[in-house]
Amino acid sequence: MSTAELDLRFDETMVRRGAKAVNWRGAVEIAGELLVGARCVRPGYIRKLIDVIDKFGPYIVIAPGLALVHAQPSSDSLQRGLVAVTFPDGVNFGHAHNDPVGLVVAISTMNASQHLDVVAGIANGLDGDDTLVSKAVRASSDAELVELIQTHLPDLNFT
C-alpha cells in the first residue's frame, strides 16, 4: 500500500478543545459530529462508533486518559480522517485503569487494511509516551493541538 493511501485528513477544523460531556456516549457523539462536519463520514457512522463500545466495552480507552474511537469502514465512510476532542473535566468510559478520558481521538478509514494501519500508527506513536493527554488538554489553540497530535503520531501521514 502506498503512503498516499494512508494519508489522513486532519487540520484545525477537526479539533475541539474544552468540550464537556456527561458520559462517554456524549463524548463519542461530539467526536463523530466532527467527522461528519469534515465530510469524512455520514451521520450513520456515529451510531456505529457507539455500537462498537456497547458491544465490546471500553477497550477503546487505550492509555490513561485517551480513547481511540473507531468503527470498521462501511458505506458511511467517505474519506480517511482523524479528529481530536479534549475534555478538561474528563469523561468516564468505564475503563478500570485508564479513566477518566481527557482526549478522544476518532478515525475514519476506507478499508480494513487502512483501518489496521492507522490504529497501529496511533498505538506506536503513543508507546511509552504518557504526556500527550495532559499537553492536549492544556493546548491554548486549535493549531497547537493539531501540531501536538501530528508530532506525537509520526507514523501517520496528515494532509
UniProtKB/TrEMBL annotation:
Q: Which UniProt keywords apply?
A: Cytoplasm, Kinase, Phosphoprotein, Phosphotransferase system, Sugar transport, Transferase, Transport
Principal localisation = cytoplasm
Q: Write down the Pfam families for this protein, in alphabetical order.
A: PTS_EIIA_2 (PF00359)
Superkingdom in the source lineage: Bacteria
One GO cellular component term noted in the UniProt record for this chain: cytoplasm
Give the record's GO biological process terms: phosphoenolpyruvate-dependent sugar phosphotransferase system
Query: Cross-referenced Gene3D superfamilies, in alphabetical order?
Result: Mannitol-specific EII, Chain A
Show the InterPro entries listed in the entry.
Ascorbate-PTS_EIIA_comp, PTrfase/Anion_transptr, PTS_EIIA_type-2_dom
Q: Which residues form the signal peptide?
A: none
Instruction: Cite a single GO MF annotation.
Output: kinase activity
| Location of this chain's protein in the cell | Cytoplasm
Q: Where is the PTS EIIA type-2 domain?
A: 8-152
What does this gene product do?
The phosphoenolpyruvate-dependent sugar phosphotransferase system (sugar PTS), a major carbohydrate active transport system, catalyzes the phosphorylation of incoming sugar substrates concomitantly with their translocation across the cell membrane. The enzyme II UlaABC PTS system is involved in ascorbate transport.
The protein's name is Ascorbate-specific PTS system EIIA component
